[in-house]
Amino acid sequence: MSTNSPSASSSADQSAAIALTIAGSDSGGGAGIQADLKAFSALGIYGASVITAVTAQNTLGVTAVHGIPTDVIRAQIDAVLSDLNVAAIKIGMLATPEIIQVVADGIKEFDGAVVLDPVMVAKSGDRLLAKEAIISLKEVLLPLSTLVTPNLPEAAELLGGAEATDSEIAKHQGSAICALGANAVLMKGGHASGEQCDDWLIENNAEPVCFTSRRIDTKNTHGTGCTLSSAIAANLAKGQQLTEAVSNAHRYLHQAILQADQLKVGSGHGPVHHFHAIW
């Protein structure tokens, strides 16, 4: 086919959509920066990264965490945002109040979508966010977020209360997190019980929307939270509206979990299969 055809010309002139992940590195490759970039790529998005911490981690647990100096984190943010046309930012592991503040300062002029995944505990149970950092997260980053994506234990910590035990409580907690300054909250149901997994999208001045899928019996769910939030950011970078972006990300993650057992990575909580549609 001639390269002068309208379709070829318009395709060649169109730049790639870009998303930025600001998060920690998982040496095992299943969560954090590695999961985010895999999800971006699988969904057709060019991914850039700002690393906030280096973890020594595998499917069995976290053995070491090293926070990146705040001046280096800020330099990474400035380098990316001053040159790349970033359409959406996903924020993951931040670890300390100082890191939270420098990230907030670095993105406060950003006018695209911001998806905040309040990463607190790894799948292995290892804590990744200092308890004293929760106040900073609420006061400094929630108001800058287009969407916050807590699981049920994280939502309880953000609110200083008990974990939701049913959908009505989950929706109420989502509204309470919105009241803290977030534009919208996705209450993830992965930690709940039952045959169905329900995620509730709570937006200010809108009816709650439920995204439901069958719960999958597998231990290989390492990186699910990172993957969902980065998939939402990727879809927002494509120009999708929030509800559509969440719905498509929910389906993508469901398939990634469904195919996770094929990977056979590690002997603990293995990763989801980000590239299930490709290999």
Structure in words:
With 279 residues, the chain is α/β, with parallel strands linked by helices. The chain has one domain: Ribokinase (UDP-N-acetylmuramoyl-L-alanine:D-glutamate ligase). 37% of the residues lie in helices and 20% in strands. It is built from nine helices and nine strands. The strands form two sheets. It has a six-stranded mixed sheet. The chain is globular and about 45 Å long. It starts with 5 loop residues before the first helix and ends in a 21-residue tail after the last helix.
Properties at a glance:
279 residues; alpha/beta; UDP-N-acetylmuramoyl-L-alanine:D-glutamate ligase; 6-stranded mixed beta sheet; 3-stranded antiparallel beta sheet; 20% strand; globular; disordered N terminus
Range of strand content: 15-25%
Q: Residue-averaged pLDDT, rounded?
A: 91
CATH topology: UDP-N-acetylmuramoyl-L-alanine:D-glutamate ligase
Summarize the helix and strand pattern as letters: HEHEEHEHEHEHHEEEHH
Helix share, percent: 25-40%
How is the largest sheet built, in terms of strand order? Answer: 3-2-1-4-5-6
Uncertain stretches of 5 or more adjacent residues = 1-11
- Intertermini distance: 28 Å
Q: Which secondary structure elements does this structure contain, and how are they paired or packed?
A:
Elements (H helix, E strand, L loop, with lengths): L5 H8 L4 E9 L5 H11 L3 E12 L4 E6 L2 H12 L4 E6 L5 H11 L5 E4 L16 H9 L5 E2 L3 H8 L7 H13 L4 E4 L8 E8 L5 E6 L9 H14 L4 H17 L21
Parallel strand pairs: 1-2, 1-4, 4-5, 5-6
Antiparallel strand pairs: 2-3, 7-8, 8-9
Helix pairs in contact: 2-8, 3-4, 4-5, 6-7, 8-9
